[in-house]
Amino acid sequence: MKNKMIIAIITVLICISAIVGAVQHFGNDKKENSNLISTDASAEHTTAEEETSLSAVLQEVQNTSALSESESESNSQAKSTAVQTSASRTAGTTAKKAETTKQQTTTALNTIKTQTSVKKTEKPNITVTVSINCKTALKYGADVPQSGYFYSPAKQTVKNGITAFDLLEKVCKDNGISFTYQQKTYIHAIGGLAEKDCGSASGWTYKVNGINPPKAASKYVLSDDDIVEWYYVTSPND
């Protein structure tokens, strides 16, 4: 009887021990499962954060790309505007040059027309006053007319376009006055009164309207109502 009780107690203790072990094993499994769940949750959280970070990076890249495209488009528009502005300025300059050339051409044509019209309406003849003065030679004692003129001032009707030299030649020929020259550029003598007859600086020259023209008499074309005076000088002061 006593042995049976001991055996029963031992059996109970074994069962209790088995139950405690089973409970402990179940608790450890549950804890491990909880850790696994926590680990998975943490992993999922980490993955979510990584996905969020990756999305942020992708968004930043997209924003940077969009900004670059915007800047590129802006630069392209700026370059296009600059090209258009330059082309506009070039076109404006070309137009101004063309307009200036047109105006110059028009002015030149109008001038030609005016000159042609004037030539058509010019008188075939002009009237000038001419004289051959030898007063300084008379004072010097030369053998010249006492009036002091080989040809006193008088009006002459001559062809339009006549030169001062041609006028002198005509007057001398029409009035029987001797006249010698060198190639129509230098008068040697009029009425027998030659260069250097009254000193080394003496000779013939001419004036038109009281002024010595800066050209040879054969190149000076006279105008209507001009006053031409041929005169003899005995010194540079005459």
Q: What topology, given as strand order, has the largest sheet?
A: 2-1-7-6
SS summary, helix count: 3
Residues in β-strands, percent: 15-25%
The count of DSSP E runs of length 2 or more, i.e. the number of strands, is 7
Coarse shape:
rod-shaped
Helix fraction?
55-70%
In sequence order, what are the helices and strands, one letter per element? HEHEHEEEEE
N-to-C terminal Cα separation, in Å? 189 Å
* Gyration radius over CA: 64 Å
Describe the structure.
By secondary structure, this protein is of the alpha+beta class. It has three helices and seven strands, in the order αβαβαβββββ. Strands 2-1-7-6 form a four-stranded mixed beta sheet. Strand 4 and strand 5 form a beta hairpin. The longest helix is centred in the N-terminal third of the chain and has 120 residues, at 2-121. It is rod-shaped and about 200 Å long. The termini are far apart. Residues 29-51 and 64-69 have low confidence and may be disordered.
Helix and strand layout, with pairings?
Blueprint: H1 2-121, E1 125-133, H2 135-140, E2 149-159, H3 164-174, E3 179-182, E4 186-190, E5 193-194, E6 203-208, E7 227-233
Parallel strand pairs: 1-7
Antiparallel strand pairs: 1-2, 3-4, 4-5, 6-7
List keywords for this structure.
238 residues, alpha+beta, 4-stranded mixed β-sheet, 18% strand, rod-shaped
The gist of it:
58% of the residues lie in helices and 18% in strands.
